[in-house]
Each structure stands twice: as C-alpha cells, then as structure tokens.
Specification:
This protein is α+β, with helices and mostly antiparallel strands. It has one domain. Helices cover 31% and strands 24% of the residues. A three-stranded mixed sheet has the order 2-1-3, with no helix packed on it. A hairpin with a 5-residue loop joins strand 1 and strand 2. The N and C termini lie far apart (55 Å).
Length: 67
C-alpha cells in the first residue's frame, strides 16, 4: 500500500501543510517551504476563523461590518 502513495506523490504536486484563507483576502500555508498557495495542492484548507485562537483579520472584518 505504501508503494501506491509514493507513486501518487510523484504524479501530483501536493503540499502537506494546511492552507489558511484569510477573511480580508490572501492566504498562507503552515508549511514554511510552500510557495504555491493553490487550493488543489493542499489536503486541508481552512478559513482563518476556524483556526484555534482565531485570526486578527476576522476582528477587522467584524469591525468594518459594524461601522
């Protein structure tokens, strides 16, 4: 079974980090060497508000909507 995973990795360019999409736009990956922030390359994609502890940009969006 492991052999299949190795072949799959060779065929697809993937990142094992988590892609975090920010409410104010933009994205970042938890993998420090990741340079391609496309959704399809990442196994896990989260909105920044789903990250434990939240994100500062979520507060900015809420403030802007309240104004």
């Amino acid at each position: 079974m492991r052999q299949k995973g190795i072949r799959m990795s060779a065929r697809f360019d993937t990142c094992h980090g988590t892609l975090v999409i920010h409410a104010v736009g933009g994205a970042e990956c938890t993998e420090p060497d990741c340079v391609d922030l496309e959704y399809v390359r990442h196994f896990l994609v989260l909105e920044c508000e789903e990250v434990t502890g939240g994100c500062q940009c979520t507060a900015l969006v809420e403030f802007a909507q309240a104004s």
